[in-house]
Amino acid sequence: MIVVLKENADPGREKQLIEWLKGMRLDVHISRGQFQTVLGLVGDTSQVDMDLIAGLSIVDSVKRVSENFKYCNRKFHPEDSVIEAGGVKIGGGHFAMIAGPCSVETEEQIVAVAKAVKASGADILRGGAFKPRTSPYDFQGLGGEGIRLLEIAKRETGLPIITEIMSIGELPLFDNVDLLQVGARNMQNYDLLRELGRQKKPVLLKRGLANTLRELLMSAEYIMASGNENVILCERGIRTYSDYTRNTMDISAIPMLKELSHLPVVADPSHATGIARLVPPMAMAAAAAGADGLMIEVHNDPLHALCDGAQSLTPAQYDALAGKVRAVREAVR
Length: 333
Ligand code: PEP
Ligand code: MN
Known about the structure:
TIM Barrel, binds phosphoenolpyruvate, about 20% strand
């Protein structure tokens, strides 16, 4: 249920109303917009007398929220959320370019890629340290050592870093990581989501390989309901009957998610297509569709990459793409 307050509602009465609602064992989520304040009520609202609340002098309207996701629902928070990661803002008109290799391999590699993407205007460096691989015989990532190398690249370039967390036991290793990635395969690892909700670092939550938008939003809800509202959604392609691409990039998910939720939406055209030459057109499409950022795999030597070389851009290709994305954003502004 949401309670929309009138403009210039008396703060004393507002406080009284919030206390009264909390007294009914409801969580009250307060969203103060430029013009209106919206109180989002979470919990058993079946006992709440809507007419009584609607009749209060400070109340503009009362509505039930039928969707199961509340905290991430745009009805709870009509304005775009702006999430901050290592000083970089994402959402609400702030567009972030996240770039870097699929996996951290060596210090030389991650520092070289970090310097290159920074020179091309990237805002955040990516690099997997704990890798969820389909085969247990494939390169599994450098683990804690990979994070240490990311930290070196961060020190050398000043770029904030994002890397994937697969298990909550590893969280202490992520102290200097600015943005925690939950990968597609863990989108419904509810224990992990709940634990990430109990800490404050922002989380980039990737859509599962075969998950609906509602399921993605319910997963975001796990993190938010546990206390961490700093969530960024990521469309990274889904499994379909597509035979020539790794996945199918669901461009329509971007505007739909932004309609349903106030959370920023980032698009990952690298995993969506699996093919480097398809990354630029899909990146531009995502930017045109209203994405709040892009996550792009870049490798200094794609042919010899230990993971996802086929979908990795070279630094020069990334540089060209970054310019095109800026042009697209300008064109649709
Ligand atoms: C990744 O970003 O490297 C990754 C493993 O992505 P996804 O979880 O989307 O497959
Ligand atoms: Mn990858």
